[in-house]
Amino acid sequence: MTSSPLPAIDTDALVDVCKRIRRHIVEMTHAAQSGHPGGSLSATEIFAALYFGGVVRHDPSNPQWVQRDRVILSKGHATPVVYATLAEAGYFSTELIPSFRSLGTELQGHVVRNKPAGVEMSGGALGMGLSFAVGVALGHNLDDLPEDEGHVFVVVGDGELNEGQNWEAIMSASHFGLHRITAIVDRNHFQNDGPGDEIMRIDPVGDKWAAFGWSVQHVDGHDVEAVRDALLTARACTDAPQVVICETVKGRGVSFMAENPAGWHGKGPSDEQLAQALREIDGGLT
Amino acid sequence: MSSNGWAAIPEPPPAATREAYGPALVKLAEAGHDIVALDADLSASTGGNKLAASFPERWFTVGAAEQNMISIAAGLASTGKTVYAASFAVFMPGHCFDQIRVQIAQQRMNVKLIASHGGISVGEDGASAQAIEDLALMTSLPGMNVVVPSDAVEADWAIRRAAEDDEPWYIRLGRPKLPIIHLGVDEPRFELGRAEVIYLEDHVTLIACGLMVEPTMRAAESLAQEGIGARVLNMATIKPLDEAEVIRAAEETGAIVCAEEHNVIGGLGAAVARTLALHCPVPMEQVGINDTFGQSGPWQALLNEYGLTSESVVEAAKRAIARK
Ligand SMILES: Cc1ncc(C[n+]2csc(CCOP(=O)(O)OP(=O)(O)O)c2C)c(N)n1
After folding, report:
1. What is A11-283's CATH number, 3.30.70.1230, 3.40.50.970, 3.30.70.270, 3.40.50.150?
2. Ordered domains of chain B (ranges, CATH)
3. Could you please report the per-residue DSSP string of A171-207?
4. Using the beta-carbon criterion (under 8 Å), do A108 and B127 form an inter-chain contact?
5. What was the ipTM of the complex prediction?
6. B42 to chain A: which residues are within 8 Å by CB?
7. Could you give the residue numbers annotated as active site of B?
C-alpha cells in the first residue's frame, strides 16, 4: 500500500496554521481550566512544520500505514499542541477539542497511544520518548523499510533533558548507527520550577549531542520556514542521528504567558485572559 | 455511637495533605533538626520550595531527575543528615524504584520519601500521573515505613514524626483539598504502626487510609442509622501494619472492609487480607481501584467513577456482614 506525505503548504499558509493551532491550545486549556499551554505554544511552529510543511509522511485516513513516519511527543504534557495539530490535519473532528481532560474523553491530559489515532506513544513521565524512538528506528531497520520511509521524529523538552535516560538513548542511537531518527528540542529555557539555567543547566546542549555522535542544527523555533527546512535536511540525512535544537519562547504568541512562563506551565486561562490571548494570536507573532 | 473522643466538627476549612509538607520542613529546621530537603522540578507542587525560601542552604533541586535525586539523598544521609526527598507518587517510586531499593532500603538510609499527588485524585492529568501502585511497590521493600495520612493535620504529625528516627519512610500525600478530620486535636494521634480507632462498634470493621478515611466515617454514620454498628480504623501506617488491632477487629466484629485510593492488589487491603488469612480469617471486602489504570477528569468525578465513595463502603459493609 502506498501513501504520500500530505502536500506541503506555502509559508503564509503555514503561518495561518500556527494561528489556528495556537487558538486551539488556549481554547482547550481554557475549557479544561488545566493543561499545559506554555510548552505547547513554544512547540507550535515545530508541529506545524512537521505536519503541514511536507516533512512527515503520514496519512490521516490511514493512521496505521506501516511505512509512515512517526512523530513522538516525549514531553507528554504538551498534549494541546498535539491534539490541535492532529485535528487540523484531519485525524479527528475539532469538535472533540473542548472535551480535553474531561471524564471519558479520548483527549487525555497526557498523551495516550492511539487516543486519538495519530498519537504514537503514551507519555507523561519525562525522559522515555527518545528510547522509544530508538526502538522504532531499530524495528524499521529490521523491516528493511526503504531509506526515505518510516522516519522517527521525537520532540523533547529542554527541562526534560535533565532526565538521565535521554542521554542513554542519545548514546544508543549513534551506537546503533541509526540515521532514521530526528530529535527536536523545544529549547524554551523554562521547566516546571522556573528557568532551566537556575534549576539544572543543560548548556552547552548542542555540544553535548554532538559529543554523543549526533549531527546538530540550531534554528529559530518560531520561524516556521526555518524549522521546516531544518527538519527536511534532517530527514534527508543518512549518516547520523539528527537533532534540531529549536530556540523558542515558552508561551509564545500570548504576551502574558510569554512574560511569565513559570506561571503558565500547567494552568488554563480565565475568560478574560482567553479573549486577550485570542486577540493576540490573531494579530500574529510580533 | 460511641466515639473515641471524636466530636462532630463544624465544617473545617479543607486542606490538601500535601500542604503540610513545606510548613513541616520549616518547623523541623527551626527546631534545629539537621535536615536537608531535595526536590525534582516539582517544588511548588510538593511545597519543598517553602524550605528553600527560609533555609535555602538546606534545600537542593536536581531538576527533573528523580534517580539522581534518590541517590544524592542516600549520599547525603550517609553524612548524618536527615534527608527528605519529594516528588509525585508516580515518579517516586515510579521513576527511581531501583535507587530506592538498593540505596535507601538496603542501605537503610535516613531518607524520608515524600510522595505527593498520590492516587487518582490527581484528576485531569490522567493515567500517567495517577499512582495506583506505589503502596504495592513500597510495602514490598523490607524495612520501609509506609504511611498514608488522612488529612493535613495527620500529614504534619507524620512528616515531623519521621524526623525522630533514622529509618527510611515513604509518606504518600494528595493533591485535592479534603476536610480536616483532626481539627482541634492538639496531641498528635499519629503513631507509627498503630491504627487510630475512630469509632468502636461491633458489627463490622471499616479500615481506611488517606482520603478514604473521611467517606468511611460517613459510611459508618449512615450504617448507624440502619442500626449497624461499624468500627472505623484509620490505618495511616500501611507498613508496619497494626496487626494486633486488625486481629482484635476481626475477633470482635467478625467482618472487615478495607477502603483505599489504590489498586486492590498490593495496598492496604492486601496487607490486611494477609493478616486475616494468617491469624483470624473472617469475611472481608475491598473498596479500591479494581486493577485498572485511571483517566483524566475532575477528581470527585473520578472517585465516583471508580467507586471510591462512602456509598461503596456502605455496600461493602453489608456484603461483608452477609457473609459472616
Ligand atoms: C519523570 C517526570 N518527572 C517530573 C515530571 C513533572 N513535570 C512535568 S513537565 C515538567 C517540566 C518539563 O520541562 P520541559 O521539558 O522544559 O517542558 P516545557 O517547558 O517545554 O513544557 C516536569 C518536571 C514528569 N512529567 N515526569
Report:
1. 3.40.50.970
2. 17-172 (3.40.50.970), 196-322 (3.40.50.920)
3. HHHHHTT--SEEEEEEE-SB-SSSBHHHH----SHHH
4. yes
5. 0.95
6. 192-193
7. 66
